[in-house]
């Protein structure tokens, strides 16, 4: 599947499969006995857990040690302090998802300046450039995921209706791309629809945002939440509503997967492949540590998941069998 | 009371008891001193009242008065306490970069990029997406406005748009008494994109060719800081050069300076270029040419890696050729070395003619490939006169793909805050409110409405 979006600076995506680690490369990496730190926005989400599995396996296979995993709890101050500390303990590389842009830029730049190789996930702080300040960005094709979510929602929306977006207030590359793509798809393919939007600061409070949006636009006919953790509280609102609306979202976390299998509110999910993204991040890190320059943006295509293909998709995405409850909801 | 005359600028400040006939000159001097202090603050040359007095040669009362004006316009603000030189520590003063916003965009062969910047020309956010230029200028302009509106929704507080910068996919000609027009792009020559943006956003627009914007970005904030004679080379599907001469962007009579990719090279495949000529550098060494040669290796089986990539992806890009070369495939490395040699030899003529102190290599080809860059370096040094290469540096762009947006933001903000420009708008408080901008906007309104342009009276009369 082709990549629809462009990188944070307009880069053309390269497939992680282009990251070739030859036998000689692998030998050099093993001899290096590299030390890598992982600094994530959270370690609690299904997405983060699968990333960590992919990273740990790939680094471990090449004799590189994960010396620390930091859970920043979506807090820029915690992330800044962690990076400051790591500048002093000097791992060879840091794999990290920056939780902010302007506020995080200086901390990442400092780490890069002391020679720590930075591989970023999903977001690039303001002003940082690939090849100079960081090695590469690894992400899903977030633009493509936004298009998938629009396409999956569209059949459930009547002509000339209104649809709502639950969008993330923070300036964040991945969620910006998803929202822009969803809007562009609707503008191009469903010009009869009017798009409304409400913004949340924390995913857990997206239910309040949905209530506000519905108060302003009571005729909404469908909802797109920019990621599954925001979709969960929004679904809770829907379940108590006299008129539950069809929804789509991004990321096939456990709750979103079960809701999609149940099929009452969740109608489709644009899914990343977090395990494979973790593998790609680890491979890019290893190549950078043996002085090879990976392409500036490595992107994996998103997967369109519906109730019809959720069982197979679950296995592809999570590299494990789906829960029995999910299978029962689909197959009866 | 004698008039105060600055030793630095020759500005003359008159005292209140001078005659009424001197008022216009006094107003001019007041605007000049405001522009000068604004420049000092924006360039961070001084951040306390005593330093401003020393640099401008203006008296304390006048500096205080001008700063009060800048505070009231929102263009300066007080900060922390500065260092004391004996006595009370002075309060620092700084330029307020958030007083307004600048919208910037890059339009190229297949992509559209938008950004938002502060009044120092620093990019705050950017977004890029694919665009089908064949869809025509109307669709591209609509998309551009949609994305600008989205950017403003995300990033605007109570600020206004002070200017718009467009990095265009070709040379930009600026006819007298008319909006700038894009050249060499079928369907765009007569399309009034500048008027459309003026009409929609009510702010002045600066449009330059993409490579010229990139060159300016590199000159001001990239690897060229402190260098005044630069060639910036954009290595992409087409190959262009942006020239900075003695600190000024050289654009050429029709805005087309630096069409390096349309220099004919010898010994190549002699393909016909889209300009109509045969054997242009673009057709031999541009990204498409590298991909084309890589595809030959994939289909002939000379490159195992490229054959596998073709089977998996269905196509070959110039990045794939670089990856194959990095992995040790000599046939792929040969493609890049040959392209680099052709680019370097062509560039050497320009180096002899122009005598730069820096060549900065950017663009999607220039970002990644060490073999290509090494071949360019070797050919430039070998084919140029020893005098012009004596201190010549050749290096990769520090701004990468963001050079176009960064340059556009800096072209706009440097134009707005040029001292002679500030004098024209400071009385109105912002450039988009000045007479010259209001006239441009009125002309654009007429053009968009299909009406002939009519002069409008200056504001306030």
What report would you give on this structure?
The complex is a heterodimer of chains A (332) and B (461). Chain A is of the alpha/beta class. Chain A has 12 helices and 12 strands. Chain A has helices spanning 23-32, 46-61, 76-89, 102-113, 142-153, 173-189, 206-216, 228-239, 254-262, 274-289, 310-318, 324-331; strands at 35-40, 65-71, 93-96, 117-121, 136-140, 162-168, 194-200, 220-225, 247-250, 266-271, 297-300, 303-305. Chain A has a 6-stranded parallel beta sheet, sandwiched between helices. In chain A, helix 9 links the parallel strand 9 (247-250) and strand 10 (266-271). Chain A is globular, with a radius of gyration of 20 Å. Chain B folds into 3 domains: 4-95, Orthogonal Bundle (Arc Repressor Mutant, subunit A), CATH 1.10.10.10; 98-213 and 404-449, ATPase, nucleotide binding domain (Nucleotidyltransferase, domain 5), CATH 3.30.420.40; 224-398, Nucleotidyltransferase, domain 5 (2-Layer Sandwich), CATH 3.30.420. Chain B has helices spanning 23-42, 49-56, 60-72, 137-155, 193-201, 210-221, 281-285, 287-300, 304-313, 318-326, 330-354, 363-366, 370-383, 386-389, 403-416, 419-425, 435-449, and strands at residues 4-5, 12-13, 76-81, 91-95, 100-107, 111-117, 123-130, 160-168, 172-173, 181-182, 205-209, 230-235, 239-245, 248-250, 358-362, 393-396. In chain B, the strands form 5 sheets. Chain B has a 5-stranded mixed beta sheet with strand order 7-6-5-8-11, sandwiched between helices. A 5-stranded mixed beta sheet of chain B has the order 14-13-12-15-16. In chain B, strands 1-2 form a two-stranded antiparallel ribbon. The relative contact order of chain B is 0.11. The A-B interface holds A 4-12, 14-15, 17-18, 20, 22, 101-102, 126-127, 129-132, 143, 171, 176-177, 180-181, 183-184, 187, 292-293, 295-296 and B 106, 111, 113, 122-130, 146-147, 150, 154-155, 305, 309, 312-313, 317, 319-320, 323, 326-328, 364, 367-368, 370, 396, 398-402.
């Amino acid at each position: 599947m082709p990549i629809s979006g462009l990188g944070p600076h307009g880069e053309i995506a390269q497939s992680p499969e282009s990251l070739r680690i030859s036998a000689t490369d692998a030998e050099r990496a093993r001899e290096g006995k590299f030390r890598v730190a992982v600094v994530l926005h959270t370690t609690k989400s299904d997405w983060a857990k699968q990333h960590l599995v992919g990273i740990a396996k790939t680094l471990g296979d090449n004799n590189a040690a994960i010396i620390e995993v930091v859970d920043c709890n979506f807090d820029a101050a915690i992330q800044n302090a962690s990076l400051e500390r790591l500048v002093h303990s000097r791992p060879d590389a840091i794999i990290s998802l920056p939780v902010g842009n302007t506020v995080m830029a200086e901390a990442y730049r400092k780490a890069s300046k002391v020679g720590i190789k930075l591989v970023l996930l999903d977001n690039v702080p303001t002003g940082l450039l690939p090849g100079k300040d960081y090695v590469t960005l690894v992400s899903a094709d977030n633009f493509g995921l936004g298009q998938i979510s629009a396409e999956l929602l569209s059949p459930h929306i009547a002509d000339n209706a209104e649809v709502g977006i639950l969008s993330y207030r923070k300036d964040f590359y991945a969620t910006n791309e998803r929202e822009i793509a969803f809007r562009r798809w609707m503008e191009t393919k469903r010009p009869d629809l009017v798009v409304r939007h409400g913004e949340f600061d924390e995913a857990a409070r997206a239910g309040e945002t949905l209530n506000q949006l519905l108060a302003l636009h009571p005729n909404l006919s469908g909802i797109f939440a920019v990621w599954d953790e925001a979709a969960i509280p929004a679904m809770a609102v829907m379940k108590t509503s006299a008129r539950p609306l069809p929804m789509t979202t991004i990321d096939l976390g456990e709750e979103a997967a079960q809701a999609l299998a149940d099929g009452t509110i969740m109608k489709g999910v644009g899914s990343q492949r977090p395990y494979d993204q973790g593998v790609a991040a680890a491979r890019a890190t290893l190549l950078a540590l043996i002085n090879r320059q990976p392409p500036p943006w490595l992107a994996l295509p998103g997967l369109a998941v519906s109730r019809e293909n959720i069982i197979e998709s679950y296995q592809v995405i999570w590299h494990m069998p789906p829960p029995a409850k999910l299978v029962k909801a689909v197959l009866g | 009371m004698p008039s105060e005359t600055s030793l630095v600028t020759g500005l003359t400040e008159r005292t209140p008891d001078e005659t009424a006939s001197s008022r216009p000159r006094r107003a001019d001097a007041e605007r000049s001193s405001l522009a000068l202090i604004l420049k000092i603050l924006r360039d961070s040359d001084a951040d306390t009242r005593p330093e401003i007095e020393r640099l401008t040669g203006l008296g304390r009362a006048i500096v205080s008065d001008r700063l009060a004006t800048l505070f009231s316009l929102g263009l300066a603000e007080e900060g922390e306490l500065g260092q004391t030189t004996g006595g009370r520590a002075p309060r620092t003063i700084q330029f307020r970069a958030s007083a307004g916003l600048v919208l910037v965009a890059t339009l190229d062969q297949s992509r559209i990029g938008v950004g938002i910047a502060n009044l120092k020309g620093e990019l705050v956010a950017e977004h890029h997406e694919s665009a089908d230029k064949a869809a025509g200028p109307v669709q591209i302009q609509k998309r551009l406005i949609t994305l600008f509106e989205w950017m403003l929704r995300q990033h605007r507080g109570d600020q206004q748009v002070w200017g718009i910068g467009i990095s265009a996919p070709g040379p930009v000609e600026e006819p007298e008494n008319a909006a700038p027009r894009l050249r060499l792009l079928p369907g765009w020559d007569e399309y009034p994109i500048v008027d459309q943006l003026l009409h929609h956003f009510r702010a002045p627009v600066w449009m330059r060719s993409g490579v010229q914007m990139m060159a300016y970005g590199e000159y001001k904030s990239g690897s060229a800081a402190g260098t005044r004679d630069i060639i910036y080379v954009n290595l992409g599907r087409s190959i262009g050069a942006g020239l900075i001469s003695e600190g000024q962007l050289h654009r050429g009579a029709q805005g087309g300076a630096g069409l390096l990719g349309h220099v004919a090279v010898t010994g190549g495949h002699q393909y016909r270029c889209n300009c109509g000529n045969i054997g242009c550098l673009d057709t031999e060494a541009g990204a498409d040419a590298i991909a084309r040669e890589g595809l030959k290796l994939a289909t002939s089986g000379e490159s195992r890696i490229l054959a596998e990539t073709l089977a998996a992806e269905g196509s070959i890009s110039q990045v794939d050729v670089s990856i194959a070369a990095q992995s040790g495939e000599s046939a792929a490395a040969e493609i890049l070395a040959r392209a680099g040699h052709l680019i370097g030899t062509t560039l050497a003529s320009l180096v002899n003619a122009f005598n730069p102190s820096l060549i900065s290599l950017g663009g999607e080809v220039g970002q990644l490939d060490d073999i290509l860059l090494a071949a360019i370096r070797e050919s430039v040094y070998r084919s140029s006169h020893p005098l012009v290469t004596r201190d010549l540096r050749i290096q990769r762009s520090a701004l990468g793909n963001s050079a176009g947006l960064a340059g556009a933001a800096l072209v706009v903000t440097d134009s707005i805050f040029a001292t002679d420009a500030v004098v024209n708008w400071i009385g109105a408080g912002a450039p988009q409110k000045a007479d010259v901008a209001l006239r441009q906007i009125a002309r654009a309104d007429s053009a968009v409405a299909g009406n002939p342009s009519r002069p409008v009276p200056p504001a306030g009369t």
